[in-house]
Amino acid sequence: MNFRQAINILKKQLKEKQPLTFSSSWIYRNTPASYRYFRLNYRTENDQIDWDKVTYQLPRSFQKRWIRYRHKTAKGYENREEIDLVLNKHRLKLYTIITPITEVDKKRRERIIIALVRVAQKGNTLAGQELSHWLSYIIDDWVDRYYTLRVWRGYTDIIQIKIDGCIRGYRYTGSFLGYLYRTLEYAGRGLCPLQKFSFDDPILDGQKTRIDYFIHDP
To answer: Which of 44, 64, 65, 62 minimizes the C-alpha distance to 53?
Structure first.
């Protein structure tokens, strides 16, 4: 069996049984051959089954039904080794987090970030700090580039709260950065800008500035 065959078996069972939700235990019960293949061949840096890589290959409708096992961590813990295992695996490609050049770079950036998200979701507080470090660069770039996020300038503390919430809430395989961006976009609609704007600021698609929409009544 190869990866594609294992995925096709899983897809077939999902289409036939149409579960409202499914999890690793559902896969174990309904497609044991696929489960064994994933368990033996697709592991994360911290030696767990890489369900993100598996569910990424499923239709979006089934991705949304995926339920991850929730680790019942009584309190947070610190383990730098778990983080280093992720970073060391991608050491030569960490630049993609800040300056992705190609679509391949963007996909790798998502894989790195999601790997850290999963470690943080286990309760590793150092992973959350590491993520915040990298995500702050990305968010700063968004705030500079996108008009809809410009309102977040100066709201550093609230941005951190939103980052923490997205880390806890991220569930199915998809773009974590897209999830974070939309969260900031929607939450930003109720914020008042802390910094003064200029009539030279670009708006909409960047083709016009504020002064183009300023109506002067003589």
So the answer is: 44
CB atoms inside a 10 Å sphere around CB 59: 10
The residue with tokens 């915040």 is 132
For the chain, where are the alpha helices, taking DSSP H only?
3-17, 24-30, 32-41, 51-55, 60-63, 80-89, 95-98, 103-121, 125-145, 156-169, 176-187
Contact between 54 and 38 (Cβ < 8 Å): yes
3-state secondary structure 142-186: HHHHCHHHHHHCCCHHHHHHHHHHHHHHCCCCCCHHHHHHHHHHH
Give the torsion through C-alpha atoms of 153, 156, 162, 165, to 10 deg: 170
pLDDT one-digit tens code per residue, 2-37: 999 999 999 999 999 999 999 999 999 999 999 999
